[in-house]
Amino acid sequence: MIGFIIIIVIVAILALTWVSGYNGLIKMRNWVEESWAQIDVQLKRRYDLIPNLVETVKGYAKHEEETLTKVVELRNQMGDSTMSRQDTMEVNDQLSGALKSMFALRESYPDLKANENFKMLQEELTQTENKIAYSRQLYNNTVMKYNTKIESIPTNILAGIHKFEKRDMLEAKEEERENVRVSF
């Protein structure tokens, strides 16, 4: 009789461990998805702000068509829902660079620099860029915790059985890792 009770207790402990580990993996996977959704929300916000910015700049910088065209092309690529997360972030990085070029135009056009609508849009985009950067950090932190849980004993066994897969972190491009050269 005691042997039977011990077997039931061991089975109950294993079942609770299994359920707890599985639920922990589900929770971490959902956190990864939620943190990606935060990036997506900020990218959508920027996607919505860009047409207003482009129209404002067009009125002042008629011959800067190449810069404006590049921004519009990259914005349109951001609307492609079939891109992988890594591809989405690559286009995002290119768009950030193109927006920096567009903001640099304000130095050449004093009227644009003084335009209140342009200033407001620039401020909103700057805030959005900061939120995107924060969201990327949150995503990478969440992915790191998720991947650690998948690789740790005993949840690695559950992860293998239930086909939980590692996620890739968002990485900076090689040129962003190089030392910045400053000369006076």
Name the helix and strand elements from N-terminus to C-terminus, one letter apiece.
HHHHHHH
Q: What overall form do the CA principal axes indicate?
A: rod-shaped
Number of helices: 7
Q: Structural class of the helices, strands and pairings? A: mainly alpha
User: What ranges have pLDDT less than 50 throughout 5 or more consecutive residues?
Assistant: none
Number of strands: 0
Largest sheet: none
- CATH fold title: de novo design (two linked rop proteins)
Rg over CA atoms = 24 Å
What portion of the residues fall into strands of 2 or more residues?
under 5%
Can you tell me the CATH superfamily?
A: LemA-like domain
Q: Estimate nothing, just give the exact number of structural domains.
A: 1
- Round the mean pLDDT to the nearest integer and report it: 87
N- and C-termini, Cα separation:
86 Å
Top CATH class? Mainly Alpha
User: CATH architecture, please?
Assistant: Up-down Bundle
Helix content: over 70%
Keywords: Membrane, Transmembrane, Transmembrane helix
Family: Belongs to the LemA family.
Membrane topology: Single-pass membrane protein
Protein name: LemA protein
